Automatic annotation (TrEMBL):
GO terms for molecular function: DNA binding; histone H3K4me/H3K4me2/H3K4me3 demethylase activity; zinc ion binding. It comes from Cirrhinus molitorella. It catalyses: N(6),N(6),N(6)-trimethyl-L-lysyl(4)-[histone H3] + 3 2-oxoglutarate + 3 O2 = L-lysyl(4)-[histone H3] + 3 formaldehyde + 3 succinate + 3 CO2. Residues 13-54 form the JmjN domain. This is Lysine-specific demethylase 5A.
Length: 1308
């Protein structure tokens, strides 16, 4: 009754997060958490991370029509208030009056609360008598000391008290006693009369007045003589109406015009017209029976009965101006039952997208912020404020109870309509798929044939902000599970089953009016009640926010309700487990008392399960045994009672073949299965045996008992289920004996597996015994596998790739673990065949431990011994603590062995090897032997690096060191036992320097000078030796002088771009008679030399290693002379051959001439030396002087030498003599110099012979004559030339026309 307070959230329900193992068995997990979760009625389950079923609905084709929900009609108290105000408005409307809520202290007066408080205090008379109006004012929350109590009394007296009198049926006498005198005018509050409140509804009054205008049925209108206290019931404007508005707040007035309370503001307007009645005597007052006081006689607009205004209850002061109903009509109208409250269907059909857009737009507009930013706490408080408010009327839509059979499930299903892709197959088979959960093997609903929408087939729910589901429990008090596919959270409230009746009694106590009209109100899912109010009355309430991807489970008979925080999509279904069976039977009894229809027959379900006991889970079979026993006992008692009634006729009937609506008890609506009673008077009607006496009034002999099973069939049916349940006891006894067996009576592992498979096949319950057996078998199998791995280590590693050290560490057992494992093997309640071998392995490990300890105590590590132990330990496949130390010692031993072997071979001990050994030694564990070897290596490395650095510095020194210095360094480094490349290089350089010096001395001390090429080789060798050589500058000077002389000589003899070398030019020709290109000529010359095997002057320059191989000068001169003679012979032969060509005139076209070796043609020249002819185009022509001589004197006078005969320049003899003088000063032999000397001697010899020839008389006179003849020929040639010039000038003059003209003028 208190005013609305801010909502306080109830405590949270349990939240469970199962592991993947727990999640694999839905019913097993729910059974596991049941003892915790059922204490709150609801619980939330978060699936393991990664379990995210894809949304399988076809969004494009998904269409639905939602329900309309007016929030303030959902809450029980708010609906009671609205119904109460409806009745008050209707009461005054029927009497032609208009009502409006009064205001006290700027608050709208809560007439319902006022009525309840006055009634609780004993009624209007008691409150007035005891003067409790101040108390009433205080309880309604008004401040004291302002006369509010008198105002409340006035409003109650004027508005509510007449209605209460009408409801109580008080007589006129009692009413008159309440009004002995007129009340104080001050009792009339400010809301009565015209003023602002009347002005506010002026337009609305005109409309209502036009609609309600009708003829007056009074003969006359007299002056009002009634007390002022009754004026509230007149048709005047001072009456207040039911509009919820504030007279001084225009904005609030405009806003509230659209609220839901406007629908209840049924206002009556006064009538002003009058109707003259001619037959007044026909009307008599139905209360007093008199017809006098015609001006006070009212005519009912409903039944035409007449009443005096003062005879009415309560009496009227004035004649109403609107339609008026007599007390009988008012009673008839007010006693009509109200329509059962329910939700309307919306007109519009939505898709998911359009509904989501509407829902998000509504929420964002309502809270004036984005939907995702609205806190859930704010939405929750606002929801409970709205449902408790009469003033605000918020309407939402809810897509509830949409059958998945019509639009499809949100979970993937294997229905053949589309192919499952990806991971949809996994989720389609999941037990948490709501399409599968009702029909799982442990579910009772599996045994119900046919699909029950909402119970076996999931329902879908598309919610928006504030859309709600009211307090209810599931059909047949079953479990339910809800999964939120996506969207904003859904807020849940739950009440545990033990408080279900308490909740029902509180709701009936708080809102009895609703249950009077709808006894099964809580089964209609249309009523909410604030959880805070329930908790005030001691009802335990729990809450939770279900987010997307989470399940909410409700337990049997747990009331639950809630609302949606925003746009979302959920799916729900029912399921029943074995523990539900007795609860389901209690529910049927409850339905029987409420006369409510059943969804299915509980008896039929139990009998159907009992008919096929082998298909039942053992736990379910045990529950069926208990349930069937109770059913048989009750059925036997009921049948005995029917027989006592005298019913003798009976007939068996297969009730499951009869439709459910044709086998319902006509009294309690229960679906009959085991038996029913019928009568011949109405064969289509039947009654359950609980209501056998209520079937009809016919004699018992006319009635017939119809039964599904004869009583003799019950024991067999019960025995079959009991056998199924009791088979578990035999199995459990065998398991208990096997698990408790001693070492002598242990069973084999295979026998335990058979027992476990038997349990799985028979579907025995998942209890501690079965879990112990499973754990024992699992442990034994694990032990067997580990033992097998331990024993087959070598074979396994032969077949498989070697594992990494980390994998080995993870897979191997420690010694302690092996000991524990052996103890575990012998402690198992079953026999493991590998146990004996594992024990032998343990003994081998212990033996290895002793040997390893002995090896680790040795002074110096023995690599072979350690390696053998490591091989043995590695083959044991056990994590041995000695292995790391053995490996460590083995590394040390191998390092020491390597150091020892390396030091034994100094030539292999490089600096890099020493550094590597030291680096590898640094990584070893400390050991005195290792430390000693490390010190030796480090010392040797330091010494070696020192001498290597000194040797490197010597090799790179500028200026270079002397032989003596280097020899001392090499001698000092000789005793270092290491391979020192720089020291070796220095030693090699020293050796080469000594050899080079010895060769130079041998050459210089020899009888002949060395050739240039020999000195050049020595010079190249000496320069490459990193030692200071004393003779090297002298050699360099000699070589430079020889090269300079050779270059000077080459400039003297060689033509520009000559293809011949200086030695070739100075030596006798070997290519006489060879024609062609230079390449072919060289090849031909080589062949000639090989053929003749003569002396090759070029061979004289070959550098020989020994000085004794140098050629003697005399032999060189002799070879030159021999080659010279060969050249002369070759020239003579060539001349003779070339001269012989001219004799072949008749075959001249076959003779080859010139360098091109073609026939004669064109202008040709003859070589003076070889006498061969050459084409003018193939050879260079003689110089200009020669050409003039050729032109004047003919070809015989020209001196032409071909390119083959004239290979070089022809310097003067004086120049050659200066070159020879320079050559004599050189301490070097040059092949070119020796050739030049021979050539000079040849030239000088020819010159001597020529002088001797020219000195004879004959030759002298011939030369004189030749000189005179030559002079004459020159003069003759000059005279002929002059004549030719004069003739040429004359011819030019004769050809000139100007000159001819002048000559003609002279002649004239």
């Amino acid at each position: 009754m208190a005013l609305f307070r801010e909502f306080e959230a109830p405590p949270e329900c349990p939240v469970f997060e199962p592991s993947w193992q727990d999640f694999s068995d839905p019913f097993g997990f729910i059974h596991k958490i049941r003892h915790i979760a059922e204490n709150s009625g609801i619980c939330k389950i978060r699936p393991p991370q990664g379990w995210q079923p894809p949304f399988a609905c076809d969004v494009r084709s998904f269409r639905f029509t939602p329900r309309i929900q007016r929030l303030n009609e959902l809450e029980a108290l708010t609906r009671v208030k609205l119904n109460f105000l409806d009745q008050i408005a209707k009461f005054w409307e029927l009497q032609g009056c208009r009502l409006r809520f009064p205001h006290i202290e700027r608050r709208v007066l809560d007439l319902y609360l006022l009525s309840k408080l006055v009634s609780a205090e004993g009624g209007f008379e008691v409150v007035c008598k005891d003067k409790r109006w101040s108390k009433i004012s205080s309880r309604m929350g008004f401040p004291g000391g302002k006369g509010v109590g008198s105002l409340l009394r006035s409003h109650f007296e004027r508005i509510l008290y007449p209605y209460e009198l009408f409801q109580s049926g008080a007589s006129l006498t009692s009413v008159h006693r309440l009004y002995p005198e007129a009340p104080d005018p001050e009792d009339v509050d400010e809301g009565i009369g015209g003023g602002e409140e009347e002005a506010a509804d002026e337009d609305e009054e005109k409309e209502r007045r036009a609609e309600r205008r009708s003829p007056r049925r009074l003969k006359d209108e007299r002056e009002n003589t009634e007390p002022k206290a009754v004026q509230v019931f007149s048709g005047g404007p001072q009456l207040i109406g039911l509009d919820i508005m504030s007279a001084d707040d225009e904005s609030f007035l405009r806003k509230q015009k659209h609220m839901r309370a406007q629908a209840f503001a049924i206002k009556m307007r006064p009538r002003k017209e009058m109707l003259e009645v001619n037959y007044i005597d026909l009307y008599m007052c139905m209360a007093c029976g008199r017809g006098d006081e015609e001006d006070r006689l009212l005519l009912c607009d409903g039944c035409d009965d007449s009443y005096h205004t003062f005879c009415l209850i309560p009496p009227l002061q004035d004649v109403p101006k609107g339609d008026w109903r007599c007390p009988k009509c008012v009673a008839e109208e007010c006693s009509k039952p109200r329509e059962a409250f329910g939700f309307e269907q919306a007109v519009r059909e939505y898709t998911l997208q359009s509904f989501g857009e509407m829902a998000d737009h509504f929420k964002s507009d309502y809270f004036n912020m984005p939907v995702h930013m609205v806190p859930t706490e704010l939405v929750e408080k606002e929801f409970w404020r709205l449902v408790s408010s009469i003033e605000e009327d918020v309407i939402v839509e809810y897509g509830a109870d949409i059958s998945s059979k019509d639009v499809g499930s949100g979970f993937p299903v294997r229905d053949g309509k589309r192919k499952l892709i990806g991971d949809e197959e996994e989720y389609a088979n999941s037990g948490w798929n709501l399409n599968n959960m009702p029909v799982l093997e442990q579910s009772v609903l599996t045994h119900i044939s046919g699909d029950i929408s909402g119970m076996k087939l999931p329902w879908l729910y598309v919610g928006m902000c504030f859309s709600s589901f009211c307090w209810h429990i599931e059909d047949h008090w079953s479990y339910s599970i809800n999964y939120l596919h996506w969207g904003e959270p859904k807020t849940w409230y739950g009440v545990p089953a033990h408080a279900a009746e308490q909740l029902e009694s509180v709701m009936k106590k708080v809102a009895p009016e609703l249950f009077d009209s709808q006894p099964d109100l809580l089964h209609q899912l249309v009523t909410l009640m604030n959880p805070n109010l329930l908790m005030e009355h001691g009802v335990p309430v729990y809450r939770t926010n279900q987010c997307a991807g989470e399940f909410v489970v409700t337990f049997p008979r747990a009331y639950h309700s809630g609302f949606n925080q925003g746009y979302n999509f959920a799916e729900a279904v029912n399921f029943c487990t074995a523990d539900w069976l007795p609860i389901g039977r209690q529910c049927v009894a409850h339905y029987r008392r409420l006369q409510r229809y059943c969804v299915f027959s509980h008896e039929e379900l139990v009998c159907k399960m009992a008919a096929d006991p082998d298909s039942l889970d053992v736990e379910l079979a045990a529950a069926v045994v208990r349930e069937l026993s109770d059913m048989i006992e009750e059925e036997s008692r009921l049948r005995a009672a029917v027989q006592e009634m005298g019913v003798l006729s009976s007939e068996q009937e297969v009730f499951e073949l009869v439709p459910d609506d044709e086998r319902q008890c006509w009294k309690c609506k229960t679906t009959c299965f085991l038996s029913a009673l019928t009568c011949s008077c109405s064969p289509e009607r039947l009654a359950c045996l609980h209501h056998a006496a209520d079937l009809c009034s016919c004699a018992a002999a006319n009635k017939c008992l119809r039964f599904r099973y004869d009583q003799d069939e019950f024991p067999a049916m019960l025995y079959g289920v009991k056998s199924r349940a009791q088979s578990y006891d035999t199995w459990a006894k065998r398991i208990a004996e096997a698990l408790a067996a001693d070492n002598k009576n242990k069973k084999d592992l295979i026998e335990l597996k058979v027992l476990m498979e038997d349990a799985e096949d028979r579907k025995y319950p998942e209890n501690n015994l079965l879990r112990s057996l499973r754990d024992t078998v699992k442990e034994a199998e694990t032990c067997s596998s580990v033992a097998q791995l331990l024993l087959s280590h070598k074979q396994r590693h032969k077949r498989e790739r070697p594992e990494s050290s980390a994998q080995k560490a993870r897979s191997k057992l420690t010694v302690e673990e092996l000991k524990v494992f052996v103890e575990q093997l012998y402690r198992l309640p079953c026999v493991i065949s590998q146990a004996r071998h594992v024990k032998e392995l343990l003994e081998s490990v212990e033996d290895f431990h002793e040997r390893a300890q002995a090896a680790l105590t040795d002074e110096t590590p023995d690599s072979s011994k350690l390696q053998a132990l490591l091989d043995l330990g590695s083959g044991l496949d056990v994590e041995l603590p000695e292995l790391p130390r053995l490996k460590q010692e083995l590394q040390q031993a191998r390092w020491l062995d390597e150091v020892r072997l390396t030091l034994m071979e100094p030539q292999r001990l490089t600096l890099e090897l020493m550094k590597r050994l030291i680096d590898s030694g640094v990584g070893l564990a400390p050991h005195h032997a290792v430390e000693k070897a490390m010190a030796e290596l480090q010392e040797l490395l330091t010494v070696s690096e020192h001498w290597e650095e000194r040797a490197r510095a010597c090799l790179q020194a500028r200026p270079r060191h002397s032989l003596l210095t280097l020899e001392s360094i090499v001698m000092e480094a000789k005793n270092i036992p290491a391979y020192l490349p720089n020291v070796l290089a220095l030693r090699d350089a020293l050796h080469k320097a000594k050899e080079w010096t010895a060769k130079v001395e041998a050459i210089q001390n020899g009888s002949n000078y060395a050739y240039l090429e020999q000195l050049e080789g020595l010079l190249a060798r000496g320069r490459s030796i990193p030692v200071r050589l004393e003779a090297l500058p002298q050699v360099e000077s000699q070589v430079a002088s020889a090269r300079a002389w050779r270059e000077r000589t080459a400039r003297t003899f060689l033509k520009k771009n000559s293809t011949y070398t200086l030695l070739q030019v100075l030596s006798p020709r070997v290519d006489v008679g060879v024609y062609g290109t230079s390449k072919s000529k060289r090849k031909r010359v080589k062949e000639l030399l090989e053929k003749e095997r003569g002396l090759d002057l070029e061979g004289l320059s070959d550098l020989e290693d020994g000085a004794e191989d140098a050629r003697d000068p005399a032999s060189v001169v002799a070879a030159f002379k021999a080659r010279e003679q060969q050249e002369l012979e070759a020239i003579h032969s060539l001349r003779a051959a070339n001269l012989a060509k001219m004799a072949l005139v008749e075959r001249i076209e076959e003779v080859k001439f010139c360098l091109c070796r073609k026939t004669a043609g064109g202008f040709m020249l003859q070589c003076e030396l070889c006498k061969d002819w050459f084409h003018g185009a193939c050879v260079p022509l003689p110089k200009a002087g020669s050409q003039k001589k050729l032109v004047s004197g003919g070809s015989k006078e020209s001196k032409f030498l071909c390119p083959l005969c004239q290979r070089s320049r022809r310097p003067r003899l004086e120049t050659i003599l200066s070159l020879l003088v320079s050559l004599q000063k050189l301490p070097v032999r040059l092949p070119e110099g020796e050739a030049l000397q021979c050539l000079t001697e040849r030239a000088m010899g020819w010159q001597d012979r020529a002088r001797q020839a020219l000195a004879t008389d004959e030759l002298s006179s011939a030369l004189a004559k030749l000189s005179v003849l030559s002079q004459r020929m020159v003069e003759l040639a000059a005279r002929e030339k002059t004549e030719k010039i004069i003739n040429a000038e004359l011819q030019k003059a004769a050809a000139n026309p100007d000159l001819q003209a002048r000559l003609s003028l002279l002649h004239i």
